[in-house]
Structure formats: structure tokens, C-alpha cells
Amino acid sequence: MNRRLRLAIALTVAASMPVLAPAKVRQAGALSCTVTVKLHPGVVDDAVDCLEQRLIELGYTDVVGHDSSYDSASVAAVRAFQSNRGLYDDGIVTSITASSLGLRGAHAPAGSARVTVIGDSAPAALRWYDEASNTTVRYDVMAVKYDLLWSLESCRRLVAPSCTGRTDPGTGQKWQPVSVLPLMQTTLRGRLGEALVIMAGYDDISITSAIEQIMAEAKGQGVAKVFWLNYRASNSYAYGRYYTAHNAALEAAKVRHPNLVVLDWNGYSQSQPASTQAQWFTSDQIHITAIGAIALAEYIKAAVDAAQVDLCATSRALAGVPDSTVGVPAAPPAADTGFVAMQPVRVLDTRVAGLGGGKGKMRAGSTIRIDLAGVLPADTSQAVLNVTAVDPCSTGYLTVFACGTRPNTSNVNFEAGRTTAALAMSLLTTNSVCIFSFSKVDL
């Protein structure tokens, strides 16, 4: 019987890479107690007992037992937690610290995508007004859907050492925040999650080099999407004359970094009626008011929602089975005697139920088997496939091979956020072909 090589398949594929994150905070429905009061070191309050229970659950071993006294061991544990979340580590349990601990406010479902927001004083009102009024109104805008990490403080620069910002109302001390890149490389390393939002650099003279360094660090940590808010034009702020160049640098960077999403905060906010802008911004037209903070939180959430970063969360159902087998592929037939063309047929789309899909993105380091029975004649020995990695969560590659021993090669190499297609010719195993993905992606 003649073996026939058939042009067989139009295949669309995707995969995703795991993202490191710390233990999730307590989720909705799991609260056994709450902390709704601000706790200062040395205070005695029944809420401290709840706080200390939570610290023990999170593995802060310095806390032994729990009572109503907010003592030095518990303060040290809270400070360590605050540092791990990028918060000002003063040991004071504010509304935001309590919410981050899972002890009050809205909580996203278990396994939700982690979204880290790093900012300077321009967006810091997102945190400040909640803390000042002991609420979580602005934090909850995103926290109801995402595992939210906020690190917002005045005078934060991107790479260069930050300036000294405002006086902390809790301690009365001046606070010099860690700049964005060092923060990513130290206390927030491995905690950034699926998405990173940056709204900082308002006190930087130039950001071109900083963009490249921050994007490289995000890529190295497997961040699927980086959302960078551009800079609102203002002649009333000392650094305002640099913002046109800042915005141009961001636009240019989009070409080099497919997972960089530049959010037009400047255009969006400037397009609002004058009365709305007066409600949103202080006199320098950069810093936001309590009302503006809610508008900003909603603007960021809408952008993150639209990008569907939740599809890169590790809890989502994933296609493919774990595969660590690498070796020498089976030998091809001694001679191919025929090639038969046919109309392309899409046989897999992990995004669509009924096409071998509907299970979500491929998990990182997994293989999916595609049965071509009914698509190709039983005697087909090889097939030509169009393979597409759709919206990868991180940089990676796909290997197309005859099911069995996987060769240590790649057929499609892709970057985070960039859909990439390639043509592949593969041997078949009993009318089946296998595809391995190094990273999390739709196929």
C-alpha cells in the first residue's frame, strides 16, 4: 500500500507559562472574623485576636498563639507581610493592610489572576483616601475580581533612587520609597502575578532606558501583560515638560514589547468635560482627588478586564497533560511515494468547545494529542499543519511531533502577548499528532 503525505490541517494553538505568586489571601465566604478598626502597635483590642489568627494561618511563625494584645511579635509579622505586598511597612493595620490580609472588604474568587499595581503619588490617592477614611472603596473596585497587590507611594521613580515623599500620617516620618525596578527585583520578586500595572515616573526626567529594564524584568518573571499608563500633560507640575517625551517613548516601546499595553490616561482624562476634570484632579492637574481615585480604579480595571489576563491565572482549567519526555523521534518511512493536497481543516482550538478545546489555555510543560481519525485516511503517514500560538502568557515555544518520544526541538517560537504562527510537517502515530508547549498559551 502506498503511503501518502497529505496537506491536512489548519490548526490554531496556544499555551501559557506558570507565574510565581505567594499564598493567596483568604477568599470570600471563608472569613471567620474581620478587622475593621485601625490597629496601632501596643493597642489592646479584640480585633487583634483575629489578626493574629490570620498571621498564623499565613505562616508567620514569630506569632505564637493569639490574644487581644498587639505586641512586638505580631507587629514584626505585620511589617513582614506589608513588605511582601509592597506596602509601607509601618506595622499599622490600615484598611488596605487588613483587606490584603483577607480580613475585610471584597475578595476575589480562589485562583484569581494576580494584578500588581506599582505607582507614585499620581495614583497613590487610590490607597490614601481609603486609609484616611478607614474604607476599602477604591481597593475593592479591582479586589472583587483580582488578587490585588498595591504598592503606591509618593516620589517613587522608575529606576533611579526615589526622592523623599510625604510625611507618613501613621508614624510622622518621611518615607523614601523603593523605585519600581528595584522593588520588582527584591521584595516583589516572584509575586508580580499575571499582570503588572505601572503608573510611576512622574518625577523622572527620562524613561526610555527604564522602560527597557522594567520590561526585561517583567519578562524574566513571566508577567503576561504589562499595563503602563501614559502621563497626563500639565504645565502646573515641575516635571510636566518631560511628559510628551515620556509618552512618545512608551508608544515606541509597544513595537518592541508585544505584552506591553500603553493605557492612554492622558487622552482619556483630558477628553472629560472640564467640570469632571475639576472633580478628578487637584490644582496641579496630575494628582487625583477622592472622586478621581475611583475613576482611575475603574479605568484600570476596564483595561485589565478587556485583556482577559484571568485566562493566564494558574487555576483555570488547562488543556494538555504534563510531558517531560524528550528523545529521538521515530525514523521516517524509507520513501514517500505520494503527496495529496486537501482543503485545510481546523482540528483544534483550545478556546472553542467542540474543536478539541474549551478547556482553556495549554498548561506549561504539557502535551496535547490531536486525533485525526476521520480527517485523514488511515494510511496517512505525515501531515502538514499550520500551528498558531495565540496570546501566550509568557515567552516559549511549541514542538509538533509524532506522539511518543518528543524531540528536543521547536517549531513555533513566541513572545508573551504576541500571536505567532508557523508551518510544520510532522510524522503521525496512528493518525494522531502531538504538540508540546513550554509555556501557557492557546493553541
What does this structure look like?
The chain has 443 residues and is α/β, with parallel strands linked by helices. It is built from 11 helices and 14 strands. Strands 3-2-4-5-6 form a 5-stranded parallel β-sheet. α5 runs parallel beside α11. The N terminus is likely disordered.
Residues in helix, %: 25-40%
The number of helices is 11
Query: How does the overall form come out from the CA principal axes?
Result: globular
Q: For the report, how would you describe the main beta sheet?
A: 5 strands, parallel
Q: Pick out the low-confidence regions.
A: 1-30
User: What fraction strand?
Assistant: 15-25%
> Would you count the extended β strands for me?
14
**What oligomeric state do the depicted chains represent?**
single chain
Order of neighbouring strands in the sheet with most strands? 3-2-4-5-6
In summary, what is this structure?
The protein is an alpha/beta fold and 443 residues long. The chain contains 11 helices and 14 strands.
What's the layout of helices and strands?
Blueprint: E1 4-10, H1 46-57, H2 72-84, H3 95-100, E2 114-119, H4 125-133, H5 137-143, E3 147-152, H6 180-185, E4 195-199, H7 208-220, E5 225-229, H8 243-256, E6 260-263, H9 265-270, H10 274-280, H11 290-307, E7 321-322, E8 339-341, E9 366-371, E10 380-389, E11 396-401, E12 412-414, E13 420-427, E14 432-437
Parallel strand pairs: 1-8, 1-10, 2-3, 2-4, 4-5, 5-6
Antiparallel strand pairs: 7-9, 9-14, 10-13, 11-12, 11-14
Helix pairs in contact: 5-11
